[in-house]
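fwd from M.: "can u put these together and see what the complex looks like"

so here's what she sent:
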Amino acid sequence: MPRTISALVRNEPGVLAEMSEAIRKYNVNIKSISAGETENPDISRLTIGLVGQDEDIRKITEDIAEMDVIIQVDDLARKEFVDRELVLIKVAMEPAVTPQIMQIFEVFRANVVGMGQETITVEMSGDREKIDGLINMLKPHGIKSMCRSGMIALKRGDD
Amino acid sequence: MPRTISALVRNEPGVLAEMSEAIRKYNVNIKSISAGETENPDISRLTIGLVGQDEDIRKITEDIAEMDVIIQVDDLARKEFVDRELVLIKVAMEPAVTPQIMQIFEVFRANVVGMGQETITVEMSGDREKIDGLINMLKPHGIKSMCRSGMIALKRGDD
């Protein structure tokens, strides 16, 4: 099962190199990573999905917590959090199946953001299960290209 | 001006360490990074926003293109593409300003995903300008925490 950690880091060159080096040392794969600015321009928030042994991931979290550039690191498996992911999907669209595909978009509340002669591009946000659900429904029609943002998350409640 | 590059990479341990090391060598800052699975489970797509001299970013793109794990790398500044970003924002909410805040959410089509005694959490996807717009509107009310996915992008049209 993938584990997700969330870290607040100082915006300094080399932060990502340092963190990914800490992960590379253990036999753990990065499934997704997502980093962007926060309310403070000097600080970024990283959300990293990891696949590996729980024990190795625990050690990685400890190693990361000790770095100078790290302000805070949370293991999201242990907390209540809201998680979301964004996906862009370009799917083949033949005239005969257009109504079917449009119905899938409607059920999933996916928004059309682009159209070509033979393809249509949609965006959708949701939790991992919803994203996987849309992908599974569109797969038989032929996914031409796809881009997932990786999970982002915030704690539930007022904290 | 931030520049965005998009890379298709093989899912191997250490890919991110290798790429971020290549970026660290030049005096370039990673503004955002977003990596997730593609339609092929062995391949991930990375979208990286960089801030630095154009010449340095050109060299980074060249260095990355030569790596064994890299399948394709595009400089998105030079192509037509659809870009989107996802944000989760937890904003302070006092009863007196609730109608005002709800109106901002409605205008931006932001979805409420969580609520506490003193805060409300919304998600919204859009291009960078729309995300920045929502943040600027909510700032005066007090942003308690925020998580941005970093930009993801796909080429326009059928390619």
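replying to her w this: The first strand of chain A starts at residue 3 and ends at 10.
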